[in-house]
């Protein structure tokens, strides 16, 4: 079945992974800027990173017929460094008119510190200034509930925010309700070992429905699976869900959210393919 993976860190993956994704129906993906596994020492490194996200990766994806889009930011973990944040925030605007940049992300918080929240707010302001979509990371494990609440409250307090233009990702059973109730989009990120499994994602869809909800592989340099969405499709089928509902979650929903950016346009071949 054709699908759009809204969250995939392809800089950490091999070209074989693009091939596997294409073979399993991926027609487009979006790549948020994230933490590299170590704290980067200089803002210059981010210029290289943003260059890669806007030139090399779309070219690599195109070899397999996958359309590559991205989100730019200083990630929540390094956002603790306010000086670095100031430099990276100054750097971002020069990349915003590149054809595959959809918005600002994945921003958010990690340990929910005062500095992280300040950097998060600066990124939100940047997105509003340029009328961009926003993609948000919520923390993992013990910080998830508190972090998600702080993010949602911060956004709701800002009257300029249109919730329908914001994706609050990495939702779990105890946070999905508060995200959807406030009108935001939400994402379930599927991991082979830790965090949300395909089975738990299907449980959440059975409990909360499929409105404003997407699934993604969130594949990166850690244990993760670039073909997590096809595994989710299998689990949905195993539970007896219709292809219509599955297609809505893996293709039509991400299409609806992302198409709010004038830059997100599938090629005619991808759009008309009946895979
Ligand atoms: Zn991520």
Question: What do you see in this structure?
Answer:
There is one protein chain. The protein has helices at about 15-25, 45-60, 80-90, 115-130, 145-155, 175-180, 200-210, 230-240, 245-260, 270, and strands at about 5, 25-30, 65-70, 100-110, 135, 165-170, 185-190, 215. The model has no long low-confidence stretch (mean pLDDT about 95). Strand 4, helix 4 (about 115-130) and strand 5 form a beta-alpha-beta unit. Helix 3 packs parallel to helix 4 (about 115-130) and helix 7 crosses helix 8. The chain has an eight-stranded parallel β-sheet. By secondary structure, the protein is an alpha/beta fold. The chain is built from ten helices and eight strands. The protein has a single domain (about 5-270), classed as TIM Barrel (Alpha-Beta Barrel), CATH 3.20.20.140. Bound molecules: zinc ion.
Helix-strand pattern, N to C? EHEHEHEHEHEHEHEHHH
CATH topology heading: TIM Barrel
Low-confidence stretches: none
Q: Helicity, in percent?
A: 40-55%
Sheet of most strands:
8 strands, parallel
Q: Strand order, main sheet: write it out.
A: 1-2-3-4-5-6-7-8
| Arithmetic mean of pLDDT | 96
- What is the CATH architecture assignment? Alpha-Beta Barrel
How many domains, in number, for the residues?
A: 1
CATH C-level class is Alpha Beta
Distance between the termini: 5 Å
- Shape call: globular
- Figure out the total of helices: 10
Bound molecules: zinc ion
Identify the quaternary structure here. single chain
Q: Identify the CATH homologous superfamily.
A: Metal-dependent hydrolases
């Amino acid at each position: 079945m054709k699908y759009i993976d809204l969250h995939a860190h392809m800089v950490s993956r091999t070209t074989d992974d693009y091939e596997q994704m294409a073979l399993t129906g991926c027609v487009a993906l979006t790549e948020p800027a994230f933490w590299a596994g170590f704290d980067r020492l200089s803002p210059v490194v981010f210029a290289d990173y943003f260059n890669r996200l806007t030139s090399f990766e779309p070219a690599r994806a195109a070899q397999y017929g996958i359309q590559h889009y991205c989100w730019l930011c200083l990630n929540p973990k390094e956002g603790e460094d306010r000086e670095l944040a100031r430099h990276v925030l100054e750097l971002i605007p020069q990349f915003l008119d590149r054809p595959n940049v959809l918005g600002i992300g994945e921003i958010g918080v990690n340990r929910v510190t005062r500095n992280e929240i300040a950097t998060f707010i600066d990124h939100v302001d940047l997105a509003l200034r340029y009328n961009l979509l926003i993609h948000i990371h919520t923390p993992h494990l013990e910080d998830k509930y508190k972090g998600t609440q702080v993010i949602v409250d911060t956004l709701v307090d800002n009257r300029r925010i249109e919730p329908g233009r914001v994706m609050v990702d990495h939702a779990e059973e105890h946070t999905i309700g508060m995200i959807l109730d406030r009108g935001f989009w939400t994402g379930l990120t599927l991991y082979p070992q830790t965090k949300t499994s395909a089975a738990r994602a299907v449980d959440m869809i059975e409990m909360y429905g499929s409105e404003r909800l997407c699934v993604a592989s969130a594949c990166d340099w850690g244990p993760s699976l670039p073909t997590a969405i096809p595994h989710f499709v299998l689990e949905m089928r195993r539970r007896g869900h219709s292809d219509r509902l599955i297609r809505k979650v893996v293709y039509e929903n991400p299409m609806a959210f992302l198409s709010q950016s004038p830059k997100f346009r599938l090629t005619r071949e991808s759009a008309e393919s009946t895979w």
